[in-house]
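Thread: Newbie trying to understand structure tokens

Hi all, I'm a second-year student working on a class project, and my supervisor (Dr. K.) asked me to get a predicted structure for one chain before our next meeting. I've only ever worked with sequences, so writing a 3D structure as a token string is new to me. If someone could post the tokens and maybe explain what I'm looking at, I'd be very grateful. Here's the chain:
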Amino acid sequence: MMIKRLTLSCLAFALCLASVSSVDAQAREYTINNGRATFASDAPLEEINGVSQRVSGSFQLDPASLAGTTGTVQVPVASIRTGIDLRDEHLQGANWLNASAHPNLTLEVTGIQGATSLEEGGRADCTIVGRMTVRGTTRPVRVRARAQMRDGAISVRARWRIQLSDFGVSIPAAVQAKVANEITLSVNIRASAG
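---
Reply by user tm_fold:
Sure, no problem. This is what the structure looks like when written as tokens:
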């Protein structure tokens, strides 16, 4: 009788492992093959907009179960353009984003909330949960996003705000009326399964 119970327990455990493995097997790696990031500073005397076309990264995603999504999105600091070369040089310098020591702005995705799945031809409004690293400082973030799936590829539009001071960037008094502490970030990406 004890051997029969042990065998049934082992069988149940094996079935549980098999079901977990089959769920994990549905997650695929998606690589960003097209992306754009924009940055907006709306200060009292000046609005500054920056853009990068060099967004890269990848993520593990199961369209049937979005909660366990993980991944990384990166933007090279040196790729950000604001329309004025001297301003770009200052932005990349040691007093601002310090591109030489910290070449990338990074969003690490640790999960998705608010939507459970994403179907072909469908759309999901969700919250990306993760960590953002700017200038070597990492902070938790929650990012509102909209994802769509077309022909197996996933497009994501996300928008959120950060405070520069949270990432160790202090704005000199001479330019505080021209550079806002709060920056609005937007990322549009398209990723395909590899």
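A couple of things are worth pointing out once you decode it. The CA atoms of residues 41 and 183 lie 5 Å apart. Confidence is low (pLDDT under 50) at residues 1-25. Feel free to ask follow-ups in this thread.
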